[in-house]
């Protein structure tokens, strides 16, 4: 009978040409913890634990998918984010640590807004909107996305996490749909598409082949189109003391800041993430 130790060896052998050794080990422990419904520490302490036929079949399913360079989050169907677990699939981005930092920034800076009106533009899996709804239970949180498939995932996440979020289908680039509306928000947040085609050269096949390109990439000719349109929307729909938060392309931080300033925001700050990249923009009316 196979043991966890022997499966760990198999993972190392079959994935050696695709992933670094350290990442292979991490992938094995994630798969083992999920398959056996125990913690990664318990896996490490029980490497000689035998694996039954059903568990062995699941290990090989995960291993074969990893050989196709499918992200482990998509293989398992979920990803951790800000203390919660979110369903993800090919229609949604996998939540990133940088986005957790954005949510943490908002929760720290806006904690005095007990009953805030919040809007998340381009919600994807709903990780930003739902996390904010859980942290601000008296806030009214709305979230929009152009993808009906992503909205279905976000709605399921909200239901599973008992988060009160109103999801709507919409295209922020379609100005005629929102110009003239009277809704007002205290906080608007967005992690829009911002990766240029040139940057694809730096990206792994895991991302390029398995995550939705519409949520990642913009045209080289107009890489800041979403920031320009969302800033225009925010200029119309933020309350007098409202705040706009962006996750941004570190290589276009200064240009993004300039776009927001032309819309009348007096306090615009570029903030770095934990890795020192210019990753967030904080804009107050």
Provide a concise account of the structure shown.
The protein is of the alpha/beta class. The chain has helices at 4-15, 21-36, 40-45, 53-67, 72-76, 97-109, 127-135, 148-160, 205-210, 225-237, 253-261; strands at residues 78-81, 84-87, 117-121, 140-145, 165-169, 185-190, 238-247, 267-272, 278-284. It has a seven-stranded mixed β-sheet, with helices on both faces.
Taken from the alpha-carbon principal axes, the silhouette is: elongated
Q: How many DSSP E strands? A: 9
N to C succession of SSEs:
HHHHHEEHEHEHEEHHEHEE
Strand content: 15-25%
In the predicted model, the low-confidence regions spanning at least 5 consecutive residues are none
Helix/strand/pairing category: alpha/beta
When the domains are counted, the total is 2
The spatial strand order of the largest sheet comes to: 5-4-3-6-7-9-8
CATH architectural name of the largest domain: 3-Layer(aba) Sandwich
Q: Characterize the main sheet.
A: 7 strands, mixed
Number of helices: 11
Mean pLDDT: 91
Cα(first) to Cα(last) distance is 65 Å
The CATH class designation of the largest domain is Alpha Beta
By CATH's scheme, which homologous superfamily of the largest domain applies? Answer: Vaccinia Virus protein VP39
């Amino acid at each position: 009978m196979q043991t966890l130790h022997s499966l760990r060896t198999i993972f190392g052998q079959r994935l050696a040409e695709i992933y670094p050794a350290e990442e292979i080990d991490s992938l094995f422990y994630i798969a083992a913890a999920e398959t056996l419904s125990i913690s990664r520490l318990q896996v490490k302490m029980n490497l000689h634990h035998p694996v039954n036929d059903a568990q062995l079949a699941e290990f090989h399913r995960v291993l074969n998918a990893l050989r196709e360079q499918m992200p482990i989050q998509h293989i398992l169907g979920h990803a951790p984010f800000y203390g919660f677990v979110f369903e993800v699939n090919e229609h949604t981005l996998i939540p990133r640590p940088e986005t957790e930092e954005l949510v943490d920034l908002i929760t720290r800076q806006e904690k005095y807004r007990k009953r805030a009106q919040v809007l998340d533009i381009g919600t994807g899996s709903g990780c930003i909107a739902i996390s904010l709804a859980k942290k601000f239970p008296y806030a009214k949180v709305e979230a929009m996305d152009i993808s009906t498939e992503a909205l279905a995932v976000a709605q399921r996440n909200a239901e599973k996490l008992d988060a009160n979020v109103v999801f709507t289908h919409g295209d922020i680039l379609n100005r005629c749909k929102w110009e003239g509306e009277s809704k007002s928000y205290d906080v608007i947040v967005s992690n829009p598409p911002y990766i240029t085609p040139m940057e694809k050269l730096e990206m792994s096949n895991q991302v390029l082949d398995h995550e939705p390109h519409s949520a990642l990439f913009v045209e080289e000719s107009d890489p800041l189109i979403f920031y320009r349109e969302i800033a225009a929307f925010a200029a119309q729909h933020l309350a007098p003391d409202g705040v706009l938060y962006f996750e941004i392309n570190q290589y276009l931080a200064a240009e993004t800041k300039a776009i927001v300033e032309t819309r009348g925001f007096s306090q615009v700050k570029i903030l770095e993430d934990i890795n020192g990249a210019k990753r967030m923009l904080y804009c107050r009316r």
